[in-house]
Hints:
The protein is an alpha/beta fold. It has six helices and five strands; from the N terminus they run E-H-E-H-E-H-E-H-E-H-H. The chain has helices spanning 18-30, 50-60, 76-82, 95-111, 131-139, 150-159; strands spanning 6-11, 33-39, 67-72, 87-91, 116-120.
Amino acid sequence: MKSRKIALYPGTFDPITNGHYDIIERARNLFDEVIVAVAESKDKNPLFTLEQRIHMVKIAIKNLDEVRVVGFNNLTVELAHEHDAGVLIRGLRAVSDFEYELQLGYLNNSLDETIETVYLMPKLKHAFISSSIVRNLLKFHGKTEHLLPKEVQQIIGSLN
Length: 160
């Protein structure tokens, strides 16, 4: 029997954006299962609580088969072992992301040589979107409808 290819897509998702969703959707086409892993990331001082971020991701991906969401507060490679994931998904928007993501990939590989890192680029129309841009717009009550999944926009609107 062929083993299932499980990929882990870790991140803070503060909040999940259309760029994140695009990568999740495309990763789903490459792997049997995608686990979106929402990091607690207290050191990043997220705008939304872990529970809110998990809820937003769950709502955003509710129509995607073989995609599930977990929260975590441990090393990514440990989480990958817990869920039998052999691949880590990382998003690359621009050259500026590449150096950091490459270092992270090498770090994870140094911790566990059996885990591969796959880098996916969002579609060009989403390449400029980042959670930090969205948070800044939210702070100043700027328009974010074109940057977030519709359901996530509705959740954020209900929180204000």
